[in-house]
Design goal:
Mean pLDDT: 79
Number of helices: 2
Structural class: alpha+beta
Helix content: 25-40%
Number of strands: 11
Low-confidence stretches: 29-36
Largest sheet: 6 strands, antiparallel
Radius of gyration: 25 Å
């Protein structure tokens, strides 16, 4: 009985060691991939959409770096995209515009649209905080958003109505999220089970 316990303990310890080696070898690959995504993203993207009729849109009253791509122009309105350079320090972004025609204005806080060589959209997070519209505080605490999971806020606007909003943005301090933790846990479990199975033949 003692011999079996010793063999079982030895097998368990060897399996742990092999698992550690496998994770150690795989970590740089994952880390390099994540760091590349984080370092490449130096832009905070903010979309402003005004929906109503074909001529509905917005006119900027502040000097922001913006564009209005063709796909933004639709039968029920149009949108504009702000691209603000960000760094590891918080940057305050002040925007002022007026509504063109009555409509429903929606502001999206997100990150740039960029795909990898497999046509998957990079999950490039951007940190935001202190978001306010026309003096009304929307949220103050830091939160992270990306292209496919933006923060959006809508208000109704009259033709010619001036809207001002302010937000702070920066590059994320870490891109480590719940999905990453789940993936790492899955790798650890699979690596251990594989190691434990292989050790019985050693």
């Amino acid at each position: 009985m003692k011999i079996r316990k010793r063999i079982g303990l030895k097998r368990f310890i060897i399996s742990l060691l092999i698992t550690g080696v496998l994770v150690y070898l795989a970590a740089p690959i994952y880390s390099k991939s994540q760091n590349k995504i984080i370092s490449e993203n130096k832009i905070a993207r903010i979309d402003i959409q005004n929906k109503g009729c074909k001529d509905t849109g917005i006119k900027f009253l502040s000097a922001n770096n913006h564009s209005k791509p063709d796909w933004c122009k639709k039968e029920n309105g149009s949108c504009s995209i702000l691209s603000e350079k960000i760094s590891n320090k918080w940057k305050k972004i002040d925007v002022k515009f007026k509504a063109v025609k009555d409509g429903n204005v929606t502001i999206y806080l997100r990150s740039p649209y960029k795909k990898d060589n497999k046509n998957n959209i990079y999950k490039m997070l951007v940190d935001y905080k202190d978001f306010s519209i026309n003096g009304k505080n929307i949220f103050k605490k830091q939160a992270s958003f990306w292209h496919n999971e933006p923060y959006k806020y809508s208000i109704k606007a009259k033709d010619g109505e001036v809207i001002k909003f302010s937000v702070q943005a920066k590059k994320p301090s870490s891109d480590w999220n719940n999905v990453d933790r789940l993936m790492l846990l899955s790798v650890l479990i699979l690596a251990f089970l594989l190691s434990y199975k292989l050790v019985q033949y050693v």
